Amino acid sequence: MSNPTPPVGTGLPDTQTLVTEPTQAPERGGKKAKDGKPASLWTDAWYDLRRRPMFIISVIIIFVLLVMSFWPSLFTSIDPFNARSCDLSTARQGPSPGHLFGRDNLGCDLYSRTIYGARNSIIIGVFTTIVTTLVGSLLGIVAGYRGGAVDAVSSRFTEIFFAIPAILGALLIAATFRGKANSILLVIVALGVLGWPMTYRIMRAAVITAKSQDFVVAARALGAGAGRIMFRHLLPNSLAPVIVVATINLGGFIAAEAALSFLGVGVLSPDISWGLMIADARNRFLEAPLPLVFPAAFLCVTVLAFIMMGDAVRDALDPKLR
Amino acid sequence: MKKTSADVLPGLSEGGAPGDHPLLAVDNLHVEFQTRAGVVRAVNGVSYTVGPGETLAVLGESGSGKSVTAQAIMGILDMPPAVIPKGEIRFKGTNLLKLSEEARTQVRGQRIAMIFQDALSALNPVFTVGWQISEMFRVHRGMSKADGLKKAIELMDRVRIPAARQRVHDYPHQFSGGMRQRIMIAMSIALDPEVLIADEPTTALDVTVQAQIMELLAELQRESRMGLILITHDLGVVADVADKIAVMYAGRIVENAPVHDIYKGPAHPYTKGLLESIPRVDLKGHELYAIKGLPPNLLDLPTGCAFHPRCPYRQDNCVTDAPPLHEVSGTRNSACHYWREVLDGEHQ
Amino acid sequence: MASTSERILEVRDLVKHFPLTQGIVVKRQIGAIKAVDGVSFDLHKGETLGIVGESGCGKSTLAKVLMALERPTSGSVKINGRDIAHAKGGELKRMRRNIQMVMQDPYTSLNPRMTVGDIIGEPYEIHTEVAPKGDRRTKVQELLEVVGLNPDHINRYPHQFSGGQRQRIGIARGLALQPEIIVCDEPVSALDVSIQAQVINLLERLQNEFDLAYIFIAHDLSVVRHISDRVGVMYLGKFVELGKDTEIYDRPAHPYTQALLSAVPVPDPDGREQRERIILQGDPPSPANPPSGCRFRTRCWKAQEICAEEEPLLQIRPGTAHESACHFAETHDVVHVG
């Protein structure tokens, strides 16, 4: 009856199920069984992630960026907030010893400004992403699972937010509350309020697809409550597209912050952010490209690192891809 | 001027000499799939023939290679990843595998047609069934829209779709499963093919509808003397309609025989196991015999006879030597070293 | 045997209509799909009741109502005297321990992102009183062994198993709470022939071992005959015939049962030309608008005026020993040749 080598299906062009051996599961399953530790999706995903070069590289980059955000003085001895570090007569000078990236339009050191700019940009990017993903996913999962009136009401409510042009709305929020709160917090709230509907839509659609599958019916037949069905069954099976969108959004939020700054309601001088630096450097881009290139490059690397990490996490959460 | 198939296939005209060659012959066919995980050997030397008016049932489970063989005959395999390293498929003596794609297109659908299990996904949901049936005539016969539609109604009548004249303008989703399968059949017989391949035509249907469809196929075959290749896993359907059977396992034919012989006394342990493992509607059995183990891994087939890990008749040489197709009688073969013991019903 | 043992399930006049509505904001009912329309039967301890019928006859809806996954429009489903169809909250949850199900599709019925251990152990997490936390892993491994799988594979994921093995995992999950009743909804129809027999034998072995009662829903009449003690034949939401397996298969009294049985191909080519075949014309009518009187009359060769006017009740009729719902019920063996 029993067979020592259980097969797995492969996705072949043939419509039939062809039978193949598991590639790496046996030794791993065997090892874990000996450890006596039960596996779960999350522990297995973590085990798998630690072996993915893409994940490791992205984590190292993100770690460096975080250190840069919180302890910028570790990377540069120049304090860009000190007015004396700028010298108008050296404006737009190219790289030189001590000023690795050269100087910007006001003659300030570009390298130290880029380092110090990381904090605001990353805080805005990361926190706005967290807020929009949490709000959007939570509402999406409830709307998708409950359906009916709950879904109808929340979907119409979401559409109202969809209808507001994001930058215009954010501008309105940021301008209205300007001075009444911390400007960084204001940017996060302004972008967050208008950023979650996309995540909501994606989560809702994924949940509706997952909900119709038999394993959800099976869980209900066992007597599982709504919480268990939503968070044990639906969430893990709907997370993949949300992760992808979240990591792509992260870059979008950092860029949106730049737009707000440009319009005069985001991070404001003398505070520093990459968005602000890019906005400042645009006018003189042709004569002096470097003040734009360096913060933009840091922005790209940051976004790329998060997208890589998101991809790796998404793959690790799919047992079929391990 | 449109080329007819006779132009492309000299010697393949209606008046050819089919007496010299079987209508369709598959000869030592091999099909492999190149995948990331390795080479999947889906078909490993399959040979069979079908004559006019004859029904060959190809019996096998999923992964046995029965559908891949059919797709190779039709020339609808995606290549790559599929490769045909060896073998011939001869239609009235012409090796189809050697033909140009253009010539192949002339054969496909016109001389050899195929119907599939899932009629709903095989029909295009955004066109009316009349349009889809008449497309066969417009494309291959150059007919006008009006004439094509007339032919479509004729065909729908022929496959017994009630009120064909009204329903010709309906869309596929407006038909029941059985009616959709009839529409598929109508499309496949539109150009009077000489060979019809039916791949699990009734698996998705209810028994009463299955009976209707099988009756329809038998009737159409009687009228036109088509050769019918019926691909199925259902031993009951096979017993009902087949003239001869080829049983496939792991990409090989393990037994072929006239239908009555196989049900009286199978000559291969796999066939025997299958026959003993199915419950019957006319008998209340005791515990079912169950073939132990699982179907083989096509990436890594067992050595020797592919069935040996599951076989109650296994001897040492089964593990090392692949059995050839032994001749059991003039009309039947078995790929088992111990076919005599199996046939005598001796259990080891 | 069956009738002498304890009655554990009592289904009475069960009706499930799905309303057909029109309009988005203000919904207006314009009709109803009468999926299950007055079904009554009993199930005894250790017994198997087979339910056969074609697609759309309501057998899967019946399974859902029995499992309290759908609330019936009316009627009752009493398990050991208590009505699960109207139970709520904690009581419903407790009652679920006694009735579990095995589903048709082994590919979608297991969460692809849970390990086998989590899948089979989930019942214990939901019903924490059944097994203390420390014992659960051992219990799951025991269950794997009971259904013929390697207990060491507890940390594997569903995609690492074949269809038949997955169905065993689904069966193990159904057994975890030690229910008295298991509803099997087409448990083998997605499996290969050689694997079907393994799973059927497993179900039979488990039934003897744990004294389970099965509701075995399938469209394959041969499989149902093999496993069932009693069989109910469904057509458009109603039982048309209900009786012991030999009564239904050897002495069917309802024309629909006769047509259904005669259509089943027998794996024996001898006498295939002599076999009686009743080929029904057309398709079953829509359950949203069933025919008046007898629902089968539109496809029946025996239909008379009375069939359109008066609905035949499911009862024992002259000349037969079991219940059938036909004014002209008459036993007639259609499966055996000669």
Automatic annotation (TrEMBL), chain A:
GO terms for cellular component: plasma membrane. It comes from Nonomuraea longispora. InterPro entries: BP-dependent_transpt_permease, MetI-like, MetI-like_sf, OppC_N. Belongs to the binding-protein-dependent transport system permease family. Residues 118-310 form the ABC transmembrane type-1 domain. CDD domains: TM_PBP2 (cd06261). Keywords: Cell membrane, Membrane, Transmembrane, Transmembrane helix, Transport. Its main location: membrane. It is a multi-pass membrane protein. Residues 1-37 are annotated as: Disordered. The lineage of its organism: Bacteria, Bacillati, Actinomycetota, Actinomycetes, Streptosporangiales. This is ABC transporter permease. It is found in: Cell membrane. Residues 13-23 have a biased composition (Polar residues). PANTHER family: ABC TRANSPORTER PERMEASE PROTEIN, OLIGOPEPTIDE TRANSPORT SYSTEM PERMEASE PROTEIN APPC. Residues 28-37 have a biased composition (Basic and acidic residues). It comes from the Bacteria. The chain crosses the membrane at residues 54-74, 122-145, 157-177, 183-203, 238-268, 288-313.
TrEMBL record, chain B:
It holds the Pfam family ABC_tran. SUPFAM superfamilies: P-loop containing nucleoside triphosphate hydrolases. It is found in: Cell membrane. Keywords: ATP-binding, Cell membrane, Membrane, Nucleotide-binding, Transport. Residues 24-275 form the ABC transporter domain. It is a peripheral membrane protein. GO terms for cellular component: plasma membrane. SMART domains: AAA. One of its GO terms (biological process) is peptide transport. PROSITE patterns: ABC_TRANSPORTER_1, ABC_TRANSPORTER_2. GO terms for molecular function: ATP binding; ATP hydrolysis activity. PANTHER family: DIPEPTIDE TRANSPORT ATP-BINDING PROTEIN DPPD (PTHR43297:SF2), OLIGOPEPTIDE TRANSPORT ATP-BINDING PROTEIN APPD (PTHR43297). Belongs to the ABC transporter superfamily. This is ABC transporter ATP-binding protein.
UniProtKB/TrEMBL annotation, chain C:
This is Dipeptide ABC transporter ATP-binding protein. PANTHER family: D,D-DIPEPTIDE TRANSPORT ATP-BINDING PROTEIN DDPF-RELATED, TRANSPORT ATP-BINDING PROTEIN. NCBIfam families: oligo_HPY (TIGR01727), PRK11308.1 (NF008453). It comes from the Bacteria. SMART domains: AAA. It comes from Nonomuraea longispora. InterPro entries: AAA+_ATPase, ABC_transp_ATP-bind, ABC_transporter-like_ATP-bd, ABC_transporter-like_CS, Oligopep_ABC_C, P-loop_NTPase. GO terms for biological process: peptide transport; transmembrane transport. One of its GO terms (molecular function) is ATP binding. Keywords: ATP-binding, Nucleotide-binding, Transport. Pfam families: ABC_tran, oligo_HPY. Residues 9-261 form the ABC transporter domain. Belongs to the ABC transporter superfamily.
